[in-house]
Recover the amino acids of this structure.
């Protein structure tokens, strides 16, 4: 059993508005490797920039499409873990609860979280790589790198690639939620990728309590008022219990 600092629990119980940022660590116990884990299997010989960037897609749309097809298949097989389910239940305990995720696996929504701010997109969505703006659900017509029916350009997965900007509306929502909360949680992220990694600082600068839940210290640990190390799938259900 984890013993949470009593002061922390009482501050959390008084909170009106809570914002949570999650990273790949939250999906690790669902069997989805994190980014800083080495790429597994076939993709181990590539570095992520060779697979998740506009240049890589231009050079070899088929390779990039296949990489994401594998990641999507893995995400489809994955089931939310107790950490996802606890966050979905936690949203009902506060007047305002915002869940921001860097993850593209869709597991928070599958666990019942109602409005997830997906900073880096979603593996289950595709979009046209051209200018027609088509966005849709994954097509798997067996063709490697299928083409857009509207304009003929290649289709691509709707996730943010290295060197690309984040979806403006999502980033705006994430910043607002970080600047207007009493407690900010950073869960399962190494805190190295911007701008997600700055959201906690934004919250802290506005007087929020900053809590880190992670397997190990991260690049943002020094900012946290409370640090709880371990697996989020173990910690979050116990934190939920302590709040009920
Ligand atoms: P990382 O792989 O960088 O960090 C995952 C963090 O989760 C690490 O600090 C681990 O220690 C921790 N962790 C692992 N297992 C855990 C568990 N069971 N419970 C709690 N923590 C655990 O992944 P992210 O921080 O999410 O960006 O990476 C951020 C971004 O970097 C990704 O969204 C991606 C990548 O570039 C884009 O795709 C744009
Ligand atoms: Zn198109």
């Amino acid at each position: 059993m984890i013993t949470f600092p009593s002061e922390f629990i009482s501050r959390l119980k008084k909170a009106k508005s809570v914002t949570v940022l999650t990273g790949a660590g939250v999906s690790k116990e669902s069997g989805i490797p994190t980014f800083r884990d080495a790429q597994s299997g076939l993709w181990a010989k590539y570095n992520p920039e060779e697979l998740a960037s506009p240049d890589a897609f231009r050079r070899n749309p088929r390779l990039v499409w296949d990489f994401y097809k594998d990641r999507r298949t893995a995400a489809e097989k994955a089931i939310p873990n107790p950490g996802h389910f606890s966050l979905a239940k936690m949203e009902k305990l506060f007047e305002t609860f915002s869940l921001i995720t860097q993850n593209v696996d869709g597991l928070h929504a599958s666990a019942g979280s109602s409005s997830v701010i997906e900073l880096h997109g979603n593996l289950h969505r595709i979009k046209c790589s051209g200018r027609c703006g088509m966005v849709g659900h994954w097509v798997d017509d067996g063709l490697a790198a299928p083409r857009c029916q509207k304009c003929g350009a290649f289709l691509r997965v709707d996730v943010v690639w290295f060197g690309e900007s984040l979806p403006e509306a999502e980033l705006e929502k994430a910043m607002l939620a970080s600047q207007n909360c009493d407690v900010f949680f950073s869960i399962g992220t190494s805190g190295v990728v911007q701008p997600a990694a700055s959201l906690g600082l934004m919250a802290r600068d506005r007087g929020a309590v900053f809590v880190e839940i992670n397997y190990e210290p991260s690049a943002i640990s020094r900012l946290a008022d409370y640090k709880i190390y371990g697996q989020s799938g173990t910690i979050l259900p116990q934190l939920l219990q302590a709040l009920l």
Summary: The domain at 33-77+123-159 is CATH 3.30.1600.10 (SIR2/SIRT2 'Small Domain'). Strands lie at 17-22, 96-101, 116-118, 121-128, 135-137, 155-159, 183-187, 209-214, 226-229.
